Amino acid sequence: MQPYYLLQESLLRRNLSLIQSIAERAGVEFILAFKAFALWKTFPVFREYIRHTTASSPYEVRLAFEEFGSKAHTYSPAYEEETFGEIVRCSSHITFNSLSQYERFAPQVLALGNEAPALGLRINPEHSEIETELYNPCAPGSRFGVLASQLPEVLPEGITGFHCHCHCESPASALPKTLGYIEEKFGKWLPQIQWLNLGGGHLVTRKDYDVEGLIATLQGFKAKYPHLAIILEPGSAFAWQTGPLVSEVVDIVSNDGIKTAILNVSFTCHMPDCLEMPYHPAVRGAETIEDAREQGVEREACVYRLGGNSCLSGDYMGYWKFAAPLQIGDTVIFEDMIHYTTVKTNMFNGIHHPSLKFERLDGTIETLREYRYEDYRDRMD
């Protein structure tokens, strides 16, 4: 069996319906972040619930304009002269990461007059609800955003909005604190802008998320600043728990009593966040035991590490306890492997890339993409 990611339409629509409901009740706009989900053949489903997307590169803005069918809300750490024209053509909003970027590129946009995209600045409130350093955009010395101390009393010509990002899979209780820091640091400029993008990390589709608390917070902030259009661009929330990665055991290796089931997928190639964050993904029908060695159970009969089929020594994780000993040919299913995972895969070592499949509401399974040798070869041209 060849491995595959399986996106389930029923679960996707469940998330989209909830997001649509929150947006309507709170009077805000939710937009899709391509950095977390970009399976463009499913965009017709998304367009039933949302109108816009957010992009951070020339390829993503084209995806928004050409495949989603609307111009992107665009932010990049640094735009480039060679591709900025494409950014302008495909964007409804352009956010600059620094004042130097504004000074370099804003004149090209302002020259378009009424046809110009809205311009914004990325701000750094110097506060973050993110504990993992790899994902913290507001850490001291961060390359992201303008500090309050760097802004003039009157915002530069054409700046109509602010964008910030302070969350990562955060609860609703994090937002009031973030808004407090925004008001403390940037409150005197809020009357000068028309829109505020609160970035991503609002994991509204997680089971324990306080949706009512979020709505109340957003309604309260809008009541305080009725002139502001509020935008949220969660990544994970749209595709949270919408489908697994299905793999197969191709060998079982036992050394020093430690059993490793080698799979026809790879953590480093097909589940990179597991190693980067790191986190142990849930495996269907198995118990995750992260501290197996501390418990002294790593050599028990049904306890295994799972290893990728690449030559990277660290391409494994452990441990999991299965109901019965694993056998070659058994199916191993990693839960919740659609958001971020599908956009961050790679073809290191020429490992076969899992196909992309979409289970429709009637139970039929549509193959969105199958990867072949030519996909690997042609990247090396």
Describe this structure in words.
The protein has helices at residues 9-26, 43-46, 58-68, 81-89, 99-110, 174-186, 211-224, 236-239, 267-270, 272-276, 292-295, 341-344, 373-378; strands at residues 4-8, 29-30, 32-33, 53-55, 72-75, 91-96, 118-122, 159-163, 195-197, 229-232, 245-255, 258-263, 286-288, 303-307, 316-322, 331-334, 355-359, 365-369. By secondary structure, it is an alpha/beta fold. The strands form two sheets. Strands 1, 11, 12, 13, 14, 15, 16, 17 and 18 form a nine-stranded mixed sheet that branches. It has a nine-stranded parallel sheet with strand order 2-10-9-8-7-6-5-4-3. β8, α6 (174-186) and β9 form a beta-alpha-beta unit. It is globular and about 65 Å long.
Task: Describe how the helices and strands are arranged.
Elements: E1 4-8, H1 9-26, E2 29-30, E3 32-33, H2 43-46, E4 53-55, H3 58-68, E5 72-75, H4 81-89, E6 91-96, H5 99-110, E7 118-122, E8 159-163, H6 174-186, E9 195-197, H7 211-224, E10 229-232, H8 236-239, E11 245-255, E12 258-263, H9 267-270, H10 272-276, E13 286-288, H11 292-295, E14 303-307, E15 316-322, E16 331-334, H12 341-344, E17 355-359, E18 365-369, H13 373-378
Parallel strand pairs: 1-17, 2-10, 3-4, 4-5, 5-6, 6-7, 7-8, 8-9, 9-10, 12-14
Antiparallel strand pairs: 1-11, 11-12, 11-16, 13-15, 14-15, 17-18
Helix pairs in contact: 1-7
